[in-house]
Specification:
The chain is an alpha/beta fold and 340 residues long. Helices cover 28% and strands 25% of the residues. The radius of gyration is 20 Å and the shape is globular. The structure holds zinc ion (ZN).
């Protein structure tokens, strides 16, 4: 089969479109013909290389995909059935897994992280990771959904315990998690404020449901939040930007507010004045991926047309390097999707 692999860490040039052996299904595995695979920041980290994470070479990235079933272990899905995939892999036997907190499993992994992923024509995945998609949902849209919406759902609903009527600040509206978080927060009755770096992106954020928007390159985010909330601050901040925004995110919170973070694309070293933490009674919440059951709940709203992943652009699989550069430039609004 054709796949995009890298044999060493580095820039987008290490991504090679080449022949690769087809995956062989082990016990419990389904084989899927990939029709679309969305990019995530995780793909960039893998390609560049990370401290303390060994990635087997040659490596195929890709956590977010949709396609057609080739085979399942016991005929659970008919060949040709259209599916999208749960990106989280877990043991299904430990206490965390059996308790439904599979993203806290000690062996938790993301498809395409240490395993081979979806930048390929065929992928193997445990059959329990398959989610059938209705005919009304296209492959590109389906591939753009799982990771971003799972992450946003876990952050807002499970970690931050968002309630109707609360105010939420979503950073980076044009990112995968940003566009998902605006929609999930709105769907749960929150008033959403969103930031982005260009007026064009801000207009799109409003269109997705943001009540007020802030240009983070020309405006002071905490000052605008104070203005919009009449000095109060927001109940929840959705963070994934990291070092560049951390301090402003803390200053945007109301007393008793919650900051929930799933990433640090601008740097992972951040400071906090402990007096602010305790006097203002803030909660700092980490969030990583989400639970399989959460994705199934979010998928029901997706299939009903109430949540819609925003697709910025598609690329042929062979142009994965071009797509990586686009993601690194942050020029996109929404997801970038590869088509084998
Ligand atoms: Zn487990």
């Amino acid at each position: 089969m054709k796949a995009v692999r890298f044999h060493a860490h580095g820039g987008p040039d290490v991504l090679r479109y080449e022949d690769a052996p087809e995956p062989i299904a082990g016990p419990g595995d389904a084989l899927i013909r990939v029709r679309a695979c969305a990019l995530n920041h995780l793909d960039l980290w893998q390609r560049r290389g990370m401290e303390r994470v060994e990635i087997p070479f040659p490596h195929i990235s890709g956590a977010d995909l949709a396609g057609e079933v080739i085979s399942t272990p016991n005929g659970e899905f008919a060949p040709g059935r259209r599916v999208m995939l749960q990106p989280g892999l877990s043991c299904a036997r430990c206490a965390a897994c059996l308790d439904g907190r599979d993203n806290e499993c000690a062996s938790y992994d993301v498809l395409g992280y240490r395993s081979q992923g979806g930048y390929a024509e065929i992928v193997k995945v445990p059959v329990q990771n398959l989610i059938a998609i209705p005919d009304s949902i296209g492959f590109v849209e389906a591939a753009a959904f799982p990771l971003a919406f799972l992450t946003a759902w876990h952050m807002l609903i499970t970690r931050a315990k968002l309630r109707a009527g609360e105010d939420v600040l979503v950073l980076g509206a044009g990112s995968g998690v940003g566009q998902a978080a605006i929609q999930v927060a709105r769907r749960h009755g929150a008033r959403v404020f969103a930031t982005a770096g260009t007026d064009e992106k801000l207009a799109k954020a409003r269109h997705l449901g943001a009540y007020e928007v802030i240009n983070h390159t020309s405006q002071d985010v905490p000052a605008k939040i104070r203005e919009f909330t009449k000095g109060r601050g927001v109940d929840v901040v959705v963070e994934h930007v990291g070092a560049a925004t951390w301090e402003g995110s803390l200053r945007s919170l109301v007393r008793g507010g919650r900051l929930v973070t799933c990433g640090a694309t601008t740097g992972h070293a951040a400071q906090i004045d402990l007096r602010v933490l305790f006097v203002r009674q803030l909660s700092l919440l980490g969030s990583y991926m989400g639970r399989k059951a959460e994705l199934l709940r979010a998928a029901q709203l997706f299939f009903a047309g109430e949540l819609r992943p925003v697709v910025s652009e598609t690329f042929p699989l062979a142009e994965a390097g071009v797509a990586h550069r686009r993601l690194e430039s942050r020029a996109q609004f929404g997801k970038l999707v590869l088509i084998p």
